[in-house]
Amino acid sequence: MNRNKKLKRPVASFIVLTNVIFWPLFCLVGAVKLLGFPTWVFDVIRCLSAWSSTFAFAILFPKIYPGQSFLHFVKQKFKNRLNGSVIFSVLTIQVVIFIIILSLVMNNHQTDSIFTISSWVILSYYFFRNLLSGPLGEELGWRGFALLELQKKYSALVASIIIGFWWGLWHLPIWLTTGFMGMDLLQYSGFFMIAIIATSIIMAGFYNINQNLIIPIIIHQFFNFFIGLVNGHLVDLMMYNAILYSVAALLLIIINPKNALYKTKSIKS
Fold first, then answer.
1. In this predicted model, what pLDDT tens digit does every residue of 16-69 receive, in sequence order?
2. Bridge partners of 115?
3. Hey, which residues does 230 pair with through a beta bridge?
4. I need a labelling partner for 164 at 20 to 30 A (CA). Which of 48, 52, 144, 156 fits?
5. In angstroms, rounded to a whole number, what is the distance separating the alpha carbons of residues 14 and 152?
6. Domains of the chain by residue range
7. Which pTM does this prediction carry?
8. Can you tell me whether residue 267 is helix, strand or coil?
9. Are 147 and 77 spatial neighbours (Cβ–Cβ below 8 Å)?
């Protein structure tokens, strides 16, 4: 038997294994919460569950890229020089969206306090906890591998929609723990999927312009971070994000369709 035989459907295998790893870890998160373990234990297990895509990719790596070094692959994803204009653009887009959402929440008088966090110490902790339990653990697999692998066959736009769909469904267990039921759960799930696919399109566009994994990590980080700062009804917040990120994705398609979204690039793994 040829031990270096290459995996035939690497992206599909990655998606399946990511979910196989994630579900038990997520159940463990729930068990830790119910059994009253210390907060730090809960945070560690939750962080590990967020890294399920990285674990899955690392396990499959020898079959996806036989003879290559996993560590070298990871280093390559960060080797390109960061483009200041790209970072400025993605931060501007997300800050503008955040400000619009803040104004909508304030106008609706949904809560007495507009922010969920008031202490700078807690804010800093929340920022880095969010970074560890989301963007750093997810982006190597979903964007660093799966997105670029699909772009060998599909346009960036199609690849980003495919990845956005499966990345969104990967969050299914989280939807079921929101406490929503009936129409609220359907609305939250629908808006979540729209927002996540729109964000995936934005990630693909800017990642293709500046192929450094820091770019999708930044976009992912501030998507999560900003939505967690606003004290409002979660369904409404997700609706606002779905609408505004979709508008941003559409503008990106209109402004830079050739280089960012439609052109299938020649990508080195």
1. 999 999 999 999 998 998 888 888 898 899 999 999 999 999 999 999 999 999
2. 230
3. 115
4. 48
5. 16
6. 78-262
7. 0.92
8. coil
9. no
